[in-house]
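ugh ok so i messed up the first submission bc i forgot one of the chains. this is the corrected input, ALL of the components this time, i swear. 902 residues overall. if the numbers dont match what u have on ur side tell me asap before i send this to the collaborators (the ones from the other lab, u know who)
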Amino acid sequence: MSLLSVHGLTRRFGGLVALDGVSFDVHEGEIKAVIGPNGAGKSTLFNCISGFDAPTCGHVVFAGVAVAGMKPHAVVRAGMARTFQNTQLFDEMTGLDNVLAGMHAVTHTGMLAASLRLPGALREERRSREEARRLLRLVGLGDAADSQAGDLPHGLRRLLEIARALASRPRLVLLDEPAAGLNTAETRELADVLYRVRDGGVTVVVVEHDMGLVMEVSDGIVVLDRGCKIAEGPPRLVQKDRAVIEAYLGEEPSDDV
Amino acid sequence: MRGRDSYIAWALVAAAAVAVLALPLLTSDRYLLKVFTFVGLNAIVVTGLALLFGYAGQISLGHAAFFGIGAYASGFVTTKLGWPFLAGLALAVGLSAVGGLLLALPSLRLKGHYLAMATLGFSEIASILFVEAKPITGGNDGLSGIPYAAVGALRFSTPQANYWLVWGVAIAAVLAVSGIVSSRPGRAMAALHGSELGASACGIDPASVKTGAFTVSAGLAGLAGCLYAHVLGFVAPSSFALDTSIVLVAMLVVGGSRSLAGPVAAAALLTLVPFADSILPGLSPATVAFLQEWKGDISGVVIIAVMLFAPGGIAGVVRALRGRFGGPGRPTRAGAVSAGPASVAEEEGSAV
Amino acid sequence: MHAAELLQFVIAGLKNGSIYALVALGFTIVYAATGIINFAQGEFYMLGGMVSVFVLGALKVPLAVAIAGGVALTVVVGALVERLALRPRRDAGQLTLIIITIGVSLLLRSVARHAFGANELSLPAFSPGPSVMFMGAAIERQALWVWAITAVSVVGLWLVYEKTSFGRAMKACSISHEAARLMGIDTARVVALAFALAAGLGAIAGAAVTPLTSTAFDVGARIGLKGFAAAILGGLGDFRAAVAGGLALGLVESLSVAYISSTYKDAIALVVLLAVLFLRPQGLFGRMAKEKV
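and heres the new structure output, hopefully the right one now
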């Protein structure tokens, strides 16, 4: 049984077909990469899976639950979390508060308990803070806890968003171009973070352009081109796939490959 | 805020509370006490508005309407129906909270200027109703003869008693709301303000956060309205019009976002400035005359000045000062923290 | 109700509707150029009437000159507002800019109260004389002026937008400031001119209506709300929609007075405003914008 099953996913915007019958599975404990030239539909795919967009037709089944068309916060509660291509951090809040916000779905203190400072609320707050610090250390941001998210350099912001995504104790995380804008050293650290995440029992699906990273960390790769899946398989086979090579030859070389 | 910082903050709050509560022991000037009682009423409304606007980022240009609903609700049932004060209080809070809920629900998809206009429209309709629903509101003449607040045998019939009633409630409200903003529900609101997409990705339901913030802030405004009615003894529509809403917004703007102390301080400032001639005995006649002329007009100037020169308001200034004199350094690499810009030698083989 | 009576209400509705259309155009122009709602638009309307009255009284010039002066001075105010209060913070978020325009609105109202007093003021009719009869209904001569001014303004605006380079620059800005800048357009100047234009339209509307309804320092807020309601009823961002929205709002308001009651006349526009915002924010002719992830 796969953890995430995408079947026949199609998304049309008027006359434009952004996704055309995309199907693939993700198994528990995998690191799966989704690659493809610009405009292939990768972000649309993520949006349809995570509830930020609804497919025109097709199914998305996560842990046995049909999630296509669910609101984003409901998808998080179902166990899938995501990061964004343009990081959507809360810039005016500290790193710690960002991660704490990510724990919203797995905590339950409401306004009444909070306003009365009930012991249960205070206890939950204390435990949440410990967990949040642990997550920050996991991604290597232990010292950024009290810094304002808006002040952090780009590479750390991306890591912070990953920590925030992990805060909801998801079974699967969708990472949208986590390596974008990272230098070699930072990408190296990102790979380590991805392994740590996987080893912690969280399945990872990552959209990426950095081929070095993709080839190194993924167990399986799905290749999209112009909305269609053109290849799927382990890295070494996908690398040599004729259709994949042609799809990439047809696009402008990008700076970060 | 952790450790030493939060002890200092609690100490300051306790000191302020003691100072505020001690005022009637230091003076028996009725006028002064009345003025400071109004500061307390504004503090209650502003605390609720800070939750909605300063934290959750939902602009409301019509909060005076909820203030009015609370005042009229309690005023009407205690004068015309003979209800006891506490029942009037409960009705005031309940009705205004429901009002907030009813405004929030259709407004969920509205942002920015659309939301501002919706709250404005709602408030203007309330204004018209306050004037036209004569059997309940007494029309332009309003309701008079509203009895003093009373809890059991205890009647709040003196300026001192009313001062303590209002400020007791205000301090409780500030404490309660500060509990909210420093924990999960407050973070959800601040997250929504920071990025609605990011908040959704945290499992936060924007609709329920907005609705909750509107309802609570409207209820607090209604609570203040009820107290206002019983402290003053009469209510008239002119107290709940657009001008009042704008002054409240000005208090939030001057106070700054993501803060309670800032807006409360701003509420004190903006409520007291028109009365400066009565409070500060040493002002020159020219200054007094100037204040009398322009006292209704400060809101506009203040809003513009703050937005142009100190957009973070009081809270922003305080934060900047704290940042200058200590606070965490800027991290440059995972695990490494330096107080200044990153050293190039620390990065190996950086890309272009 | 007799046909003549009904016609009377329709005429009143179209007269008021033209005023709402002019104010709505002011909102639309600024929105198209900057993406913000100028909460001070109603004050430009107020200043148009008030300053004209002041010029007439202080300088004893012919009415036309006084009105020209009133409108011109209001245009200057509009340009100053943009330059001093908005341009310094042009990159701030929408919320900040909204608040600044609210502050400006308050400031203009205060200044007007101190400069011109708190009383109602009026202008003489532009062409004195009895009302014109039309199919049994009476049309005030000033109403004809209102329609004429509205028509000229709308046509003039259309010409500016379609035939001049400034108009093209405005259209570019309404799509994207960045793209416009890349094309060499001075977006700062476009924004300044947009404000001046919006102020001028509001002022003309205010001056044209003052002979009919008098003016006072605090008329800005209500007319601003109604003008905004008209603008979004049509659909924000489109000029024809603003005019259509203005006329439609005027008619709806007038007919409710005819068939329901006149007590709640002002509430009608507010109900329309809320109905549009809650049910169809893009208005009758606009399109919904979608947030991109």
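quick check: The domain at 3-326 of chain B is CATH 1.10.3470 (ABC transporter involved in vitamin B12 uptake, BtuC). that seems consistent at least. Chain B has one domain: 3-326.
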